[in-house]
Amino acid sequence: MGWSLVAAVWISVTSPGVPIPGNDRAHQEQVFQRYWGTEFVWRYDDLPNEGGVEEERIPYSGDIYLDRQGGTLNVMRLYDRAFHGGRMLATAHEQWDIDAYKQPTNARLAQVFRRRSPRMEIPNWHGHCNGWAAAAIRHAEPERSVQRNGVVFSPADIKGLLAELYIYNDVLDLSGSSQNIQAGLLHAVVANWIGRGSYGLGLEADPGPEKWNYPAYAFESSTVRRSANSVDVRMTLRYAKDSQGEYQQSPRIERQKHFFYRLDLNSRGEITGGTFHRNSERIDMLWIPLHPKPSRQPGNERGNPHLDVDKILAIWRESVPEETRRNWLVVDPSPKDVVPDAVTSGSMIPVQITGGISPRMARAAAP
């Protein structure tokens, strides 16, 4: 009995973990080269053990506009008043979208409440958490009210517009081909994007049917070397929690995920795989929000068709000081948000900012 226990521990420490598939490695390298103009680093000793976005770029804690609480109906009414002459076009679509994804209640609960059949209800987790997370990564928090056609959009209203704009917009999945992100890939992605790049990541937090998304912005880790080819890592990933309501000036609510895993290294010290220990938390996805696209176009097929991307982004720009926007560099920027100093005619170049490498700025397209 004692021998079996020792053998089990030895196997758990020395046996190889889940390898990172070759196509997943190639995907990470291609994406990083495209957006940063430099190589994705796999060598463990060359990666930082902590990092994060600059203090002024910590994502704001915004509302997730739960469907059970009306989603973004209130701000859609404002938008319709400003741009549709009071016709409730965007509002009607949001109401349809809220109702379209109802699900049957649990059959056992239906029996408890003496119902003949489950009732169709809006799931308690349906909302705009991914829209808020994307907006908080890509956009500085609105500071000023903006008027359009006699309608005033407050900073809180503008955050609601952004959450709706991004809810169905395309993202870049950095999680690999497995159902949930693997330990080796988790470490490599976080250390490269947040550590080397000081860049926020979308975090789909909990494996399972419910999808809760947040903007992750900092990490720190400690390690114990087991051998030349094996290292144990404890990582704390920091992310912004939603504020359960929209504020004119949002709070900064921090939460943490704690991971404990072993990394497998090859003879060159590169991460080749790994495995989570039993006391580690797990997550579904890490992702990058991309620039907002018009509804019913590739990359945003399900978005609200009565919203104009350019009008909403123009409202956001007017609500934020120019200096703040110029310092808010993002990958895959919208054409009008490209920083002029960051490009040369007909080419793309990396830009240096405080804290390490910086995203490669795409050349602005002709208006």
Distance between the termini: 74 Å
Rg, rounded, reads 23 Å
What share of residues are in beta strands? 15-25%
Oligomer state equals single chain
Give the tally of structural domains: 1
Overview of this structure, please?
- 30% of the residues lie in helices and 22% in strands.
- It is α+β, with helices and mostly antiparallel strands and 367 residues long.
- It has one domain.
- Strand 5 and strand 6 form a beta hairpin.
- Helix 6 packs across helix 7.
- It starts with a helix and ends in a 6-residue tail after the last strand.
Brief sketch in words of this structure:
The protein has helices at 2-14, 22-36, 73-83, 89-100, 107-112, 129-138, 155-166, 183-196, 309-319, 322-327, and strands at residues 18-19, 50-52, 103-104, 120-121, 146-148, 151-153, 171-173, 201-204, 213-227, 230-240, 254-265, 271-276, 285-289, 343-344, 347-350, 360-361. With 367 residues, it is of the alpha+beta class. The longest helix has 15 residues, at 22-36.
List keywords for this structure.
30% helix; 9-stranded antiparallel beta sheet; 3-stranded antiparallel beta sheet; disordered C terminus; alpha+beta
